[in-house]
Design goal:
Helix content is 31%, strand content 30%. The strands form 3 sheets. The chain has a 7-stranded mixed beta sheet, with helices on both faces. A 4-stranded antiparallel beta sheet has the order 2-3-1-4, with helices on one face. The protein has a 3-stranded mixed beta sheet with strand order 5-6-7, with helices on one face. 35% of the residues are buried.
């Protein structure tokens, strides 16, 4: 699809007024790049807001404030873009404007060329839907279309979870997957012999993607996907809980995990930066669990703990 991209770069102090100018002109969907927002994020008042900031994000501190918006490519919208930018430059001294026509058909699926079948554990392989692959006799293949917003299973946090699932899950056990994302852990649990899996996520888009992937792998009879929260209204007792989240969420949810586990059940948590591992471990112990195992891959950790 072709579209028009309009970038407006105001001088200092004009960003808020420029946003109001665009709203008055009927432009409600904008992307605002403001270095002040990054500074506020980095100087967070609550440490649960984030664990890790990618170095690429930090480059945002170097940019000038800017507003970008997009219009479908048409003669009328090209005129609108030209008129709006001219009016903005007349209204805001020093404002610069860039208008370009883009075509996303060449790049929107570009990321797919980097997602190839990958052996994640001794038995589990993750394969994208668009790749041909012949598994060996002992492989269990998770076929997945993650969408651009969800993981492919090759990240350390997911591979650590899958490895612990493979080690500890016994055939016939019940699994609760908290923060299911694209459904990889739930599908992996089903392939490893779980009798029932409840996959839960607070994000409705994650629920949609997970359901599609569960169906793609023929696991509908075993895996049920729903929007929800471990702390609110879940009626499910599991033999194993998998929670691939982030350190502060694991800490927050750990006191609730035991309410959904049978005695002796296993709690696998991941998405934990190595520097926060000791803090998470302490919280899990305090919640009534005994640590079974801690694994680390690069900067990430996963913890397997037994409910006592």
């Amino acid at each position: 699809m072709k579209y028009i991209e309009i970038r407006l770069t105001p001088t200092d102090g004009q960003l808020e007024e420029l946003t109001g100018f665009l709203l008055a002109a009927g432009i409600t969907d904008t992307v605002v790049d403001d270095p002040a927002d990054l500074a506020e994020l980095l100087n967070k008042k609550e440490d649960y807001e984030w664990d890790y900031v990618d170095p690429a994000v930090l480059k945002g501190a170097e940019i000038k404030p800017r507003i970008t918006f997009y219009l479908e490519d048409s003669a009328a919208n090209r005129r609108l873009a030209s008129e709006l930018t001219a009016q903005a430059q007349q209204t805001f001294a020093g404002l610069t404007a860039e208008i370009s026509t883009e075509d996303d058909s060449a790049w929107k699926d570009e990321w797919k060329k980097y997602f190839k079948p990958a052996r994640i554990t001794e038995r589990l392989t993750v394969k994208p839907t668009w790749e041909n692959y012949t598994p060996s006799a002992d492989e269990l293949v998770i076929e997945i279309d993650p969408g651009m917003a969800f993981g492919t299973g090759t990240h350390e946090t997911t591979s650590l979870c899958l490895a612990l699932l493979e080690k500890y899950l016994q055939p016939g056990e019940r699994v609760l997957d908290i923060g299911c994302g694209s459904g990889i852990l739930s599908i992996g649990a089903a392939l490893l012999g779980a009798s029932a899996v409840l996959a839960v996520d607070i994000d409705p888009q994650a629920v949609f993607v997970s359901r599609e992937n569960v169906a793609l792998n023929g696991c509908e009879a075993t895996v049920r996907v729903q929007q929800g929260d471990l702390t609110k209204g879940l009626d499910f007792e599991a033999d194993l809980i998998a929670a691939n989240l982030m350190a502060d969420l694991v800490i927050m949810l750990s006191p609730h995990a035991g309410q959904h586990l049978r005695r002796g059940g296993l709690y696998i948590s991941s998405g934990i930066l190595a520097e926060k591992c000791a803090e998470v471990e302490a919280a899990i112990r305090e919640a009534g669990f005994a640590i079974e195992e801690i694994r680390q891959d690069g900067m990430w950790c996963a913890i397997a703990a037994r409910w006592q």
